[in-house]
Amino acid sequence: MSPKAKTTKKEQESLDQQLEEKLAPTIHDIEWTDYVLSFLTEDEKIMGNPTTDGLRRIFEKVMDCEIAHCDTTVVQSPSRDNEMRATVTHTLTYILNREHPEGSEKPFLNSRSVTGAADVYWGNCDKIFRNHPVAVAETRAEGRALRRALRLRKVVAAEEMASEIEDHPDAHTINKISNNQINFIDVMSQRLNINVEKLLELNNLVKENVYDTLHEEAVEIIRSLSKYQQNISDIPESILGYSNEWK
């Protein structure tokens, strides 16, 4: 009796793949959503919600397709008249790798296209991102397009969630200094040994609360710090002496 032939590594990988495909749920099964989310790593989820980056990474693998084209359109740009609202659409076109199903008489279109839309303003966006409504809307629109193409049930992309929304903003709070600007000013001032309060006073930008500083005013401060960085000798002695108590 001849000995049983050993299965090669390549043959085993092929068998494992066939078994996985046989056990994997289809897009029509109730288990489909959990199956898709299982491909995400922990850092691709926030409070259990998938990030757009994560959905983008796994999309072609899960759907067995190739993304042919992505198109983003800004439908509405932020302005004073629309409360700084941005509306964006994202269209995703992809080609399925599957061939025409055997025995099917219906035409099988390999190409698919889905569109997601999102609008962002101070009332549905975290305060830290409120000065970048177009960028946030773009990410949300892409996340919705990916969710729609993947046919995920009862799932919201992490970027669509907002926990710290500005209440009843006026013209100043809509466009005031961002946390990113504050952090940048603090790091630059510490590096150059500049007292931020004295720098604000020098530029006639003293506020009772630094968070009342307008976005445009913060840009001017950052511009001044950048000039001082290029030529340290131009820093007035009157504003030297960094202190972290300015925030």
Could you describe the 3D structure shown?
The model has no long low-confidence stretch (mean pLDDT 82). Helix 3 runs parallel beside helix 4 (133-150). The chain folds into two domains: 13-160, no CATH class; 176-246, no CATH class. With 247 residues, the chain is α+β, with helices and mostly antiparallel strands. It has a three-stranded antiparallel beta sheet with strand order 3-4-5. The longest helix is centred in the middle third of the chain and has 18 residues, at 133-150. The chain has helices at 9-23, 32-37, 52-63, 133-150, 171-174, 179-192, 196-202, 215-230, and strands at residues 45-46, 49-50, 65-76, 86-96, 111-120.
Task: Set down the secondary structure blueprint.
Blueprint (H helix, E strand, L loop, with lengths): L8 H15 L8 H6 L7 E2 L2 E2 L1 H12 L1 E12 L9 E11 L14 E10 L12 H18 L20 H4 L4 H14 L3 H7 L12 H16 L17
Helix pairs in contact: 3-4, 6-8
